[in-house]
Amino acid sequence: MSKQKPKVAFYWCSSCGGCEESIVDLAEDILKVTDAVDIVFWPVALDFKRKDVEAMEDNSIDVSFINGAVRLSEQQEMVELLRKKSKMVVAHGSCAHMGGIPGLGNFWNKETIFHRAYHTTPSTDNPDGTVPLEKTKVDGKELSLPRFFDTVRSLDQVIDVDYYLPGCAPPRDIIMNAVQAILKGELPPKGSVLSPNKSLCDDCDRNDSKPEKLAISEIKRPWEVELDPEKCFLAQGVLCMGPATRTGCGERCIEANMPCRGCFGPTDQVYDQGAKFLSSIASILDTDDEKEIEKIVNTIVDPAGTFYRFSLPASTLRRKKMEAIK
Amino acid sequence: MNENKKIKLFINNKPIEVEEGTTILQAAQKMDIEIPTLCYHSLLEPYAACRVCVVERKMGEKVDLATSCNTEVKEGMEVFTDSEKAVNARKMNIELLMARAPAAEPVQEIAQKMGIEKTPFEIKDPTEKCILCGLCVRCCEEVVQANAIGFVDRGLEREVSPPFGEPSEDCIGCTACAFFCPTEAITYEDLHERKIIHEEMDLGPSKAIRVPLRQAVPMVPFVDEESCIHFKTGGCQLCEKVCEKEAVNHEAEEKEIELDVGTVILASGFKTFDSKRIPPYNYGRLDNIISGLEFERMVNASGPTGGEIRMTNGEKPQSVGLVHCVGSRDENYNQYCSRVCCMYSLKFAHLIAENTDADIYDFYIDMRCFGKGYEEFYHRLLEEGTKFIRGRVSEITDIPLSEKEEGKLIIRVEDTLMDTVRRVPVDMVVLATGLEPNEDQTELARMFNITTSQDGFFLERHPKLAPVSTASDGVFLAGACQGPKDIPDTVGQAGAAASEALALADKGTFELEPITAEIDEEVCAGCQLCIGLCPYTAISYDKEKGVSVVEEALCKGCGTCVSACPSGASQQKHFRDQQIMAEIEGIFIE
Questions:
Q1: What is the arithmetic mean of pLDDT over B223-245?
Q2: Quick check: A267 and B523 CB within 8 A?
Q3: In the predicted model, what is the mean pLDDT of chain B?
Q4: I need a labelling partner for A268 at 20 to 30 A (CA). Which of A17, B163, B522, B575 fits?
Q5: Are A270 and B564 within 8 A, CB to CB?
Q6: Banded model confidence at residue A1, pLDDT cuts 50, 70, 90
Q7: A266 at interface of B, judged by CB pairs closer than 8 A
Q8: Peptide bond into B425 cis (omega under 30)
Q9: SS3 assignment for chain A
Q10: How far apart are the CA of A249 and the nearest CA of chain B, in angstroms?
Q11: Mean pLDDT score, A154-181
Q12: Is pLDDT at A241 greater than 90 in this prediction?
């Protein structure tokens, strides 16, 4: 028998499934992957149970790709289990990397989210006011559900993470490069994000269209302007997170004439992507007048959701203070 | 005409050689032979109106009389200035002029010299001064080029007048006609109201060519285009004609001169607080309320009153109030102390005591006599009898509440030592106006990449360790542009600034601060956000590498680019994010 193939696990936590899709999107390349590795755990595609993983020896999985943020107690248990069984853990996609879109739930808590989801959304039809409970008695038997945390966490806030695959979802070349690097054992230092450490402007075709002194006097949302497909979004008054976002995505959004939303996270030098971008934007407002500044800044609709769309749990803010939530 | 052609002639039998085109009068003047004149002026075309300069001339066989001012010399001409025939004719002319203008002094003088006591002719108007010499008309036509006056009528009715005897619209009010008039027959009226004592800033036109002030550096005159006749009518230029050094040039224009320098000393000074901003003080509305600077000008010996302290009616004040802290130490205007007003107010009190017998009231918050010898001066004033009242003046009004306040300025003040509100009637009030930054201070600061402090004055690099330096290397500060200060302090600071500038210029190099920004070209994506933001223009874009680059010699380490850099490529040495985060973490370790 030939040399044993590396064992690989895939798992999803709080995510949309897009990252799973990104694996499937490898298309025929997936065959190269399955040729090279043994997939030992992939709940979304193959029928595995938790007890199968529990039965594995510690460190027997060569690499676990885990996507999604950690929102539920079950997810925490599973990632802790996989960490124990794996030699290497890769945070796959923005949610595992920084908390992602589910991380915006950190502006709320369990109570307010449940209240919204089970009582007040226009589509809620819940005349009995039923709310998920961790333990429920039905016909004398106790049923249990995982615990819903108040705070969403990125993967590395729960377990030790070796590498990060950024993106929502990570594009296939980034994934293939990572897989090949792992197979060849040519890996950068632990903790690296597996994408170039430069901001998106470096690869952006529109960078040269930037005026000598970029100054914004009005901030517009993409639907408010007919966007020039050649011109820098910031020069058009549209917030583009590109300058504060790591490159490597292949400018998918830019090519679709949409500004960058920041899913790749910041470069290694930056602690807080949202704060950094806010600081940049504040620097290029086209006025020194305090009132005028206030007026311009007030044109940013949903600043928290704009600047921290993918990175709130991993930011220095992490979440809204519990006592501030009503 | 060949200008160099020489002509030989004889005057009073003496030979002389002059250039062609010279008049007999000019030739005679060269020989120091005196010929009396009235209507002649070297700057105007000769007119031969008065005919006092008449001489006898002989050309070949022909002998006759000629007016010397407008008769050109001819080869071989013989001139006799004092021949019997000439003198008789001159006498007759003078007698006629005496009858026409008996009040004209120059005519009298010439008559006296010639021994004429009385005119045999009938005197029409004993007050008449005009001798119809036409100097005024010629000057208005030739020099001013306004043509506002001319001769009207003929014979006995002939006179100088503006058209139709009405004030002429063409008159530019230059008064040159009066200047040229030899007999003071022309007077001029100022149709505009002007106060000559307290609003001396509006004293009306000065001489159009003048030295700006006695202490001017360089001490040379300039042409004031606002007042100069040449810039109104295109004429005149007399100053240019009379200046032997040919130093006056009306074509010269203001020029911007660019100089490459290694160091700059900013000494742009201050402006005084405009007391009109405090309406209750009624400055500018009521007479005899003047600012410190206006008082200073008035007591100056070269000022409009020759150093006399006068009210607008020209009388000496019987009582004067000095009001401190006008626009200073006041939350509504400027919070800071202007530092010079206490002492100049004390000086004023002393000068008023010296100049007048007035009662002097000095309204102060507290006396700030911090300089050398200042406290002693204050004590001297206490002995001189100035009445010091501690309290901020709330109002200066002319509305009397009692008979003794009638016609006075009443100063309302809370006397904090007597714990009462007082009304002090005085004749004159001097406001100790504070010092403020110039209007273009911020613009200048931006130009030199330096900052201003909260009060608007230029900010020094360090209040104790670098008091004359600024955030820009090679730019130094001197004087009140950095903050209110008196003359000794200014001179001291200016000396320090000069030596700092010289030391730097002499060395030719300077040391860089270690705290500068640097851009990691591995990380920089070339988004160029930082370039337009750098207040020191220290960042440029390297097109080849596609990255922004910091010029360390220009960087002042302000950190603007660091906070703006969205990719974290720009980092401040010694203040890197990691270092700051480590510090913050350190704080939270228990």
A1: 85
A2: yes
A3: 89
A4: A17
A5: no
A6: very low
A7: yes
A8: no
A9: CCCCCCEEEEEECECCCHHHHHHHCCCCHHHHHHHHCEEEECCCCCCCCHHHHHHCCCCCEEEEEEECEEEEHHHHHHHHHHHHHEEEEEEECHHHHHCCHHHHHHHCCHHHHHHHHHHHCCCCCCCCCCCCCCEEEECCEEEECCCEEEEEECHHHCCCCCEEECCCCCCHHHHHHHHHHHHHCCCCCCCCECCCCCEHHHCCHHHHHCCCCCCECCCECHHHCCCCCCCCCHHHCECCCHHHCECCCCCHHHHCCCCCCCCCCCCCCCCCHHHHHHHHHHHCECCCCHHHHHHHHCCCCCHHHHHCCCCCCCCCCCCCCHHHCC
A10: 15
A11: 94
A12: yes
User: In the predicted model, is pLDDT for residue A3 greater than 70?
Assistant: no
| pTM for the predicted model, two decimal places | 0.57
Angstroms from B541 CA to nearest CA on chain A: 10
Contact yes or no for B352/B311 (Cβ under 8 A) = no
CA distance A283 to chain B (A): 6
Indicate if the pLDDT at residue A326 is higher than 90: no
CB-based contact B532 A277, cutoff 8 Å: no
CB pairs under 8 A between A and B: 88
Rounded average pLDDT over B508-536: 87
CA nearest to A298, candidates A225, A219, A214, A216: A219
Flag whether residue A212 sits within 8 Å of chain B, measured between CB atoms: yes
pLDDT tens profile B241-278: 888 888 898 888 888 999 998 899 999 999 999 999 99
B466 min Cα distance to partner chain A (Å):
29
- A235 at interface of B, judged by CB pairs closer than 8 A: no
Domains of chain A: 7-101+151-184 (3.40.50.700), 110-149 (no CATH), 200-307 (no CATH)
Averaged pLDDT, B100-106: 91
Cβ contact B586:B545 at 8 Å: no
Does A269 contact B523 at a Cβ distance shorter than 8 Å? Answer: yes
Residue B526 is nearest to which of A207, A213, A280, comparing CB atoms?
Answer: A207
What domains can be seen in chain B, in order of their start residue? 6-114 (3.10.20.740), 134-250 (no CATH), 271-436 (3.50.50.60), 441-507 (no CATH), 517-588 (3.30.70.20)
What pLDDT is stored for residue B195 in this prediction? 47
| Mean pLDDT confidence for B195-220 | 65
Those of residues 104-133 in A touching chain B at CB distance below 8 A are none
Q: List phi, psi (to 5°) of B68.
A: -70, -20
Interface predicted TM-score (ipTM) of this complex, two decimals: 0.85
CB under 8 Å to B183, separation ≥6 — which residues? B101, B103, B104, B105, B106, B107, B129, B130, B131, B133
Any residues with CB less than 8 A from the CB of B467 and at least 6 apart, and which? B460, B493, B496
User: How high is the pLDDT of residue A4?
Assistant: 82
Give me the residue label for tokens 């050689």. Answer: B17
Residue % of chain B over a pLDDT of 70 = 96
Q: Measuring CA to CA, which residue among A185, A11, A208 is closest to residue A93?
A: A11
Q: How far apart are CA B319 and CA A137, in angstroms?
A: 101
